[in-house]
Specification:
The structure holds two protein chains of two kinds. Chain A has 17 helices and eight strands. By secondary structure, chain A is α+β, with helices and mostly antiparallel strands. In chain A, strand 1 and strand 2 form a beta hairpin. Classes of the chains: A alpha+beta, B mainly alpha.
């Protein structure tokens, strides 16, 4: 492995430790919510009890699209986004692009078309209103928003998570440089030795196995955070006179001679059928530029094909519904930069091969959480008995490390209770805050760290066990209904919560039989 | 997908063998000597072969799944293998 001189190793240990201590707890929050958010789509279906099986893109929509296009004021027909919302309903957002305080936004009319083809919702607003949390997706939206920006307003939230991603990158690189026996120690977990050894082994073994993915997840996460907040404005300033809209059109748009002659939109049903046949998958998103003009263009976005990791996009002539080309993410022609940009999303979200890739990314995220938590514990136990007491930090680490899963479970419980009443967008974050306040309160009154850990583990385990019955009692579909509708994910998540809750409570039984002394709140002998 | 799962399981099986015979872990657990260096190298190369095959075949998705799945499995195996005997501080 890499052998640095002693002085440099010491400096690297300091960099590794302090980067973790200063930002470790926030990083833990981002990674834990990101781990849960890997299954955001599935959690959305589970929590809202979605049982529809036919995609909106498999149902006829051409006539509805034309009718709504005619009804919509011309100023909002610059583009329309088509996507699934709710339980496989069709969302159509007719909009125009405009700058708002230096930020490129979309403003227009949003329609939701139900499974019977009728408009069930109509709303004027911006992209933030349309793509923000709704009553039926409040839980998954809350998880994603916490992960993406910790609920801090943009751009500061994104900048914060970007910096956290960089700190994770620094910790991964410095960890690689200071670990002299990376492979020799990969199976050695001395759990019952000294507190330092036990924590060091737990931290380094999990860190070593997940090291390649620590780089990947940290880099791609930082990329997403800085792309819109720093990258786009800087490039726009350097090459487009500060015009972000012009940059966006140059990078993502479809170049061609403008043809503003009026033309009816081509048969969208034919485009959908052709796109599904070519990509082998239902579109995740569809955009139509220049709606109602002769130069209209339709782009369909699909998950990656078998053996590929980059998502697939297909371009159609909007007026004739003729297939034009497979479209790269960036620019009109395939390029290395376009491919690199396209694989950032699957590499970060693990959404390129269905549930298997998501399950693996969930496991890797869990490993990152464990590495972060044990890293902070290791830093603390190394300073046990020193001149300065870090008992408060040990307690804080435990409140965040074990209290955050409890608060997330409380948010899920609040969502299940509030969704039938239509107030889930308010109660989901409120439930999280109540859970967080209870965890902080427990941290303040617990006599020692061991007792605090027992309380938080017990409460989280009990709450996880309660989630499936709460879902059923608040009107969620039963297991037979879910199986009959082909939504086995609802049953899978029920079982996962029951197992996780049961496992946490079972662990406490073991702890009660063989009590362990607190590692940090009691002085080392 | 099934082939990828089989590849992950095969590599995980070889990692389990590596872990069971790991000299440092065995010494720490008071289980005596472990595998020799050549056997360990052979097992390690064999564990990497499925990933190499996916790379050569150009299957990026399967390679990533194998790499991530094997990493998670390796961590799980390390955590499940017998730990050191209890020491009294």
């Amino acid at each position: 492995m890499i052998h640095l001189p002693k002085a440099e190793t010491k400096a690297m240990v300091a960099v590794h430790g302090w980067s973790g201590i200063l930002l470790g707890l926030l990083l833990y929050a981002v990674v834990l919510t990101g781990t849960a958010a890997v299954f955001a789509e599935e959690i959305g279906a589970w929590s809202a009890g979605h049982v529809a099986t036919q995609s909106a893109f498999e149902r006829p929509m051409a006539d509805t699209l034309r009718r709504l296009g005619d009804e919509t004021p011309a100023q909002y027909r610059e583009a329309v986004d088509l996507f699934e919302t709710g339980d496989h309903d069709l969302g159509l957002f007719f909009h125009r692009h405009e700058m708002d305080g230096g930020e490129l936004i979309s403003r227009g009319l949003f329609y939701v078309v139900g499974q019977d083809g009728r408009v069930i919702h109509r709303q004027a607003g911006t992209n933030e209103d349309v793509y923000g949390a709704r009553n039926d997706n409040a839980l998954s939206a809350f998880l994603v928003d916490t992960h993406v920006r910790l609920h801090v307003p943009n751009p500061w939230g994104l900048l914060l998570t970007g910096i956290l991603g960089l700190s994770m990158l620094v910790a991964a690189i410095s960890g690689l440089l200071i670990h002299r026996h990376l492979f020799k120690d990969i199976f050695t977990l001395r759990r019952s030795g000294s507190a330092v050894l036990a924590n060091r082994d737990a931290h380094s073994v999990a860190g070593t196995w997940s090291l390649p993915f620590a780089f990947v997840l940290a880099f791609t996460g930082s990329f997403f955070s800085f792309f819109g907040t720093v990258g786009m404005p800087v490039v726009a300033m350097a090459a487009f006179g500060g015009n972000v809209q012009a940059l966006t059109e140059a990078v993502y748009g479809n170049p061609g001679r403008p043809d503003p002659r009026p033309a009816t939109i081509g048969n969208m049903d034919r485009i959908n059928a052709d796109a599904i046949a070519r990509a082998g998958a239902i579109p995740t998103f569809v955009t139509i530029e220049n709606v109602g003009r002769a130069d209209a263009k339709v782009t369909t976005y699909h998950p990656p094909k078998t053996a590929a990791i980059a998502p697939m996009s297909l371009l159609y002539d909007g007026a004739t519904a003729a297939f034009l080309q497979e479209k790269p993410l960036i620019g009109p022609k395939p390029s290395a930069g376009g491919t690199l940009a396209a694989i950032m999303s699957p590499l970060h979200f693990g959404n390129f091969a269905g549930l298997l890739s998501k399950a693996i990314w969930f496991g890797l995220g869990f490993a990152m959480c464990y590495v972060t938590y044990t890293g902070i514990r290791l830093w603390l136990v190394r300073r046990e008995g020193g001149v300065r007491s870090f008992a408060w930090l040990e307690r804080t680490n435990m409140v965040v490390g074990l209290g955050l899963p409890f608060a997330l479970a409380a948010a899920a419980a609040a969502f299940l209770l509030a969704m039938p009443l239509g107030s889930a967008t308010w109660w989901t974050p409120a439930g999280f805050l109540v859970g967080a306040a209870l965890a902080v309160g427990a941290g303040a009154i617990a006599p020692d760290a061991a007792r605090l850990g027992t309380w938080l583990r017990g409460a989280t385990g009990a709450l996880l066990l309660l989630l499936p019955p709460m879902r059923l009692l608040t009107g969620g579909p039963g297991w037979s209904t879910a199986f009959a509708a082909g939504q086995s994910i609802i049953v899978t998540l029920d079982v996962a919560f029951l197992l996780a809750g049961g496992w946490m409570l079972w662990q406490l039984r073991g702890t009660a039989r063989t009590p362990r002394p607190s590692l940090a709140l009691q002085p080392a002998e | 997908m099934m082939l990828t799962l089989v590849a992950i399981l095969a590599s995980a099986g070889l990692i389990l063998l590596l872990g069971l015979g790991d000299p440092k872990r065995r010494r720490a657990a008071g289980q005596g000597e472990g595998h020799g260096a050549s056997l360990r190298r052979l097992l390690a190369v064999a564990a990497l072969l499925p990933g190499l095959a996916f790379l050569l075949y150009g299957d990026a998705a399967a390679f990533l799944l194998w790499l991530g799945g094997t990493a998670v499995a390796g961590w799980g195996i390390s955590a499940a293998l017998p730990a050191a005997p209890t020491k009294v501080r």
